[in-house]
# Entry
Amino acid sequence: METALHQLVVRVEKALDQQEVALGVFLDIEGAFNNTSYDSMCVALARHGVNRTIVRWVKATLEGRRATATRGNLSRSVAVSRGCPQGGVLSPLLWCLVVD
# Structure
């Protein structure tokens, strides 16, 4: 089974072999994923019919996050004010609801 990326590469190679123009557009959403506001995530949840109690729980979970960086014996911790938490199951869902 061919992957979507493999199919794309085949089409681009074919176009180049036939001296045609090959144009590709890629979307990097990392910055958007990291900068999505908590309010936009909660609005998206509500818009998709998620119970208000769950929306409040998600908002409380998001607002209570802290990021800590450590190098050697030095450590710095700051409150996180936006962005989908990374590494969990909830994050991709929140992002998909926001962009839907």
Q: What stands out?
A: The two ends are 29 Å apart (CA to CA).
